[in-house]
């Protein structure tokens, strides 16, 4: 567990270690099957997998990008950004949500397991069943890592979480736990998921009222609460930017007074959250059909 947080080279060596990832997954599957999700070794295994999934899209060998996801030929070379899926234009990135991905392997091995639906379902199961905060946070964090990039892998993982594995109810529950780091990681995961336009209506229906409900009121000044609040505002921004329906949903959840309160907090500690709330308010005002409702 300590070695897995030793940086890029350490992660690379551990990912390449024959049988290591398979053994970790096998062990967790066993404890879940035995109804022992609070096992300390399970926590350690999940924390290792969480660390090994960090920067995964960027650090994967190029061979995986070409053989598993997409060929890079005929991709424009302008507007380059680095990443393990090669250089692509921003327009291409935006369209990747619609690229059908090849069927995943039925029996993944090694590093392939890190983004496989089997492990995604294991994380969601631990989120639902474990009461250990570190296990919950690591499971959420692994999914956050896997959905953090802009290539086809993060979007495929996001679709699995939301649509194939029905993971939103379990994630929603984590918004209401008392442990601030677990809540912060759950919100960060939802922020990543909300970037996928094809999933926004599902996410808004399932968790938008909950996101509004956990906005702090009045606004306290701790760093972790500030980070969480900023992430909530940016998630709501993603969900409402192109959807008047979702903006109305935010309105009916009494979100506007809370967001205004956050935006008006000018303390240096909370400036990040205040800016995020202001960006959200500016975006909400672009829905001209809701102006009269806003004023009421």
TrEMBL record:
Region (Disordered): 79-107
Annotated SUPFAM superfamilies: ARM repeat
One of the GO biological process terms: intermediate filament bundle assembly
InterPro entries: ARM-like, ARM-type_fold, Armadillo, Plakophilin/d_Catenin
Gene that produces this protein: Pkp2
Keywords: Cell adhesion, Cell junction, Repeat
Keyword Repeat set for record: yes
GO cellular-component term (any): nucleus
Biased composition (Basic and acidic residues): 94-107
Keyword Repeat included in the entry's annotation: yes
Family recorded in the similarity comment: Belongs to the beta-catenin family.
Subcellular localization, as worded in the UniProt entry: Cell junction
Full protein name: PKP2 protein
């Amino acid at each position: 567990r300590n070695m897995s947080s030793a940086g890029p080279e350490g992660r690379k060596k551990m990912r390449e270690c024959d049988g290591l990832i398979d053994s970790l997954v096998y062990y967790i599957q066993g404890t879940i099957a035995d109804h022992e999700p609070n096992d300390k070794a399970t926590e350690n295994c999940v924390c290792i997998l969480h660390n090994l999934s960090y920067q995964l899209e960027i650090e994967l060998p190029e061979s995986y990008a070409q053989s598993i996801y997409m060929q890079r030929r005929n991709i424009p070379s302008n507007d380059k950004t680095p990443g393990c899926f090669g250089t692509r234009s921003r327009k291409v990135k935006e369209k990747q949500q619609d690229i059908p991905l090849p069927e995943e392997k039925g029996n993944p091995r090694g590093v392939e397991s890190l983004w496989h639906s089997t492990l995604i379902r294991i994380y969601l199961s631990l989120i639902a069943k474990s009461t250990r905060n570190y296990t919950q946070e690591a499971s959420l964090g692994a999914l956050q890592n896997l959905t953090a990039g802009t290539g086809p892998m993060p979007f495929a993982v996001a679709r699995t979480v939301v649509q194939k594995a029905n993971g939103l109810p379990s994630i929603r529950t984590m918004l209401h736990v008392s442990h601030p780091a677990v809540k912060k990681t759950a919100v960060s995961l939802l922020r990543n998921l909300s970037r996928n336009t094809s999933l926004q209506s599902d996410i808004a229906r399932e968790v938008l009222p909950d996101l509004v409900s956990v906005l702090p009121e009045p606004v306290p000044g701790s760093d972790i609460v500030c980070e969480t609040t900023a992430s909530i505002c940016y998630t709501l921004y993603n969900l409402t930017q192109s959807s008047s329906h979702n903006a109305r949903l935010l309105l009916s959840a009494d979100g506007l007074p809370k967001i205004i309160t956050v935006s008006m907090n000018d303390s240096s500690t909370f400036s990040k959250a205040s800016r995020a709330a202001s960006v959200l308010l500016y975006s909400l005002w672009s829905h001209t059909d809701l102006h009269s409702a806003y004023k009421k």
